[in-house]
Amino acid sequence: TPDEEMHVAVRGELSYYEPQGSCSLIVEDVVNMGESEYSQVYAENKETLAADGLLDDENKQPLPELPTTVGLVTSADSDARIDAVTAIHDRYPEVDIKINDASVQGPDALEALMSGVAAFDEDATVDVIVVTRGGGADKTLRIFNETPLCRVLANTETPTAVGIGHEDDQTLADEVADYRFMTPTHAGEVVPKRANLDQEHVQLADRLDTAYRSAVDSKLTTSKTALDNAYESVVASRLQKLEASLEHAADRHAEAELLDLRNQLDTAYRTLEQEKEHQEQLEETVDEVRDEAMSEAEAKVARQQRRYRTAIAVLVLVVLGLAALYVI
To answer: Domain residues for 89?
Structure first.
């Protein structure tokens, strides 16, 4: 669409309406013969903003994933306001919308729009700022090409989203904003779809349950393996210690047994030696007793023999005496 003051060449047919005496030109083609004065202003403004880096994508902020409050800057009682609110609530009914009414065209529009954006930027409860208006003549949209408004939009700490005019309209405010949507009916793009979130929530819950079960199973398996390894390690270590203690105890027991056996052997040997010595003493005593008995027996026999001889002698004397008597 040609801008005002643009120099163009047109081709078409003339139409004459006789009752009113009016003549019309039915345009079939338009050729741009040179930029209008405003086109030069637009280009200069865009060049200035680009030089300051306000059009660079790396300087743009991402929109919040789930804003709880949206700040809406638009004209009061306009279709754009109704369309924007409806679009946002259709996608996510629970989101809060704060509205700053601002003129979107005319002498007061620039200050009103800048003030509305700045006020929401200072409001800590606002998560994203939306600026929008419906379509109109190109001249009525020029306010959104002004560099002061573009700088305010670009320098906010709160993410901004701008949608101006119809789908084929594009302003510098669209380009400096963190996010551009096509028309007020697309303003809902700044919030997620509740249905999608619910579905995603279910999917995430399922994935979380699956991941939880998998993590628990993996943790249990890992813990069981670690516990088994630890148990085996402790048991092996304990067995080694017990084996070492048992071997040490066995060695000490064997040494004690050997010592006891050695002591018993020494005692038995000493006892044997004592018994042997006692036997020898006993044998000596027996020999002595035997010798004494023999001596006593020999003495007794000698005494008996002496008595026998004495008796015989007496008997002989008696016989001799009797014989003598008989002879007499």
So the answer is: 55-192
